[in-house]
Amino acid sequence: MNEKDIKELLVNIKENRISLEDGVKAFKELPFKDLGFAKIDNHREIRVGYPEVIYCGGKTVEQVKEIIKFMMTKENNILATRATEEMFDEVRDFCKEAEYDKEAKIIRIMKNTPKVSDSYIAVVAAGTSDISVCEEAAITAETFGNKVERIYDVGVAGIHRLFDKLDIIRGAKVVIVVAGMEGALASVVGGLIDKPIIAVPTSVGYGANFNGLAALLSMLNSCASGVTVVNIDNGFGAGYSASMINKL
C-alpha cells in the first residue's frame, strides 16, 4: 500500500463506499501482515518508495507460495529473487501472469506498468559468465521503472570491446559494473566516466578468486573515485541502489 492507496481508502470511508469496519481492518494490516513464518512489510513502499521484495534463498517452496499469494492481494508489482523453477511452477498454478527469468532466477508479477525514467542505467558485464548477476540487476531496475542498457562481455582481457561502447556508458545516469576474476573492470570504467559506479563482484573465477572475495577486495581498493561496492553476486542490491540514484 502506498500513499495514494491510503488517501483513496480514506476518501472511500468518508464517502461510505467502504464500511468503517472494512476500513479499520485495512488499517490493521497496514504496518505488516503476520503469516506465522513471515511478516510481510506492507508499509515499506510508504517509507522507502519501493514495496518489499522477496528473497527466496533459504525459503521453502510453500513459504514462497504463501508470501506471493498474500502480496497478490495488494496492487504492487511483485519481485522475488533467487527463485527456483520449482517455486515458479507452484506460483504459476495460481497466477498465470507470473514471469520467470531462468538466468536472473527472478519471479516477477507486474500488476501495473511503472512510469519509465527518461535517463537510463547502464549494466556492464566483464564476461558472459557474469550475465546472471547482471540480469538480476537489470530486471530489478526495470521492475522499478528504469530504462536499462545492457553492455556485456567487455572485460579488460579485450579492453577495445569496452571502448567501442563508451558513448552508451557515458550517457547513463548511473553505471553498474559486474565482474569476477580480479574485478578490474570497475576501476577501468571509473577512470573513464563522470557518473557514479556501483561495482558488483561475482563469484566467477578460478581457485584464488575465493568465490568472489578477490574481486570484492579489488573493487573495495579501487584507485578510481566514485566506485561504490555491493556484496558478492548481489545484482539485486546494485539494481535497487542504481534505481534510487536514477530517480533522484
TrEMBL record:
Pfam families per UniProt: AIRC
InterPro entries: P2CMN_synthase_LarB (IPR039476), PurE_dom (IPR000031)
Residue span(s) of domain PurE: 119-248
Protein name (database record): Nickel pincer cofactor biosynthesis protein LarB
Annotated source species: Clostridium mobile
